[in-house]
Amino acid sequence: MRFTFPIAVIAAAMIGSVVQAATAIQSGDSAKGAILTDGGGMSLYTFDKDTAAVSNCYGDCATKWPPLEASSKARPQGAFGIILRADGARQWTHEGKPLYTWFKDAKSGDITGDGVKGVWHLARP
């Protein structure tokens, strides 16, 4: 996978200085075209069973599809938002769709989660 450009670097003000959040969402090229990745280059996915700004992936689902966590200092920016999950965690969204990684993607560039059970899809910029 080759990264083309950062989509968003989320920053927050802290005691007069700007602190970059640990998570950056980027755009990358894959065998299936342009996709969104986390800061480490891992592919991001969306889940058809989610509703606008609401995650419906918990328990075993969230073990296999870890939510893209937003730190307490992270702030929404442009098309990227943050939701509060029912378990209390903060999760990144893109255009209202919660974002996830896939536990079977072993390295940057893997896109093995696309199409799983017909409800998981690569997140697109």
Name the features:
1 helix, mainly beta, three-stranded antiparallel β-sheet, globular, 125 residues
What does this structure look like?
The protein is mainly beta and about 120 residues long. The protein has one helix at about 60-65, and strands at about 1-15, 15-30, 35, 45, 80-85, 90-95, 95-100, 120. The chain starts with a strand and ends with a strand.
Give a brief rundown of this model:
By secondary structure, the chain is mostly beta strands. Helix content is 4%, strand content 40%.
SSE map:
Layout: E1 2-14, E2 17-30, E3 33-37, E4 45-47, H1 60-64, E5 80-84, E6 90-94, E7 97-98, E8 120-122
Antiparallel strand pairs: 1-2, 2-3, 4-8, 5-6, 6-7
Low-confidence stretches: 1-23
Q: Can you give the mean pLDDT?
A: 85
Strand content range: 35-45%
| Rg over CA atoms | 14 Å
So how many helices? 1
Shape: globular
Residues in helices, as a percent range: under 10%
Tally of strands: 8
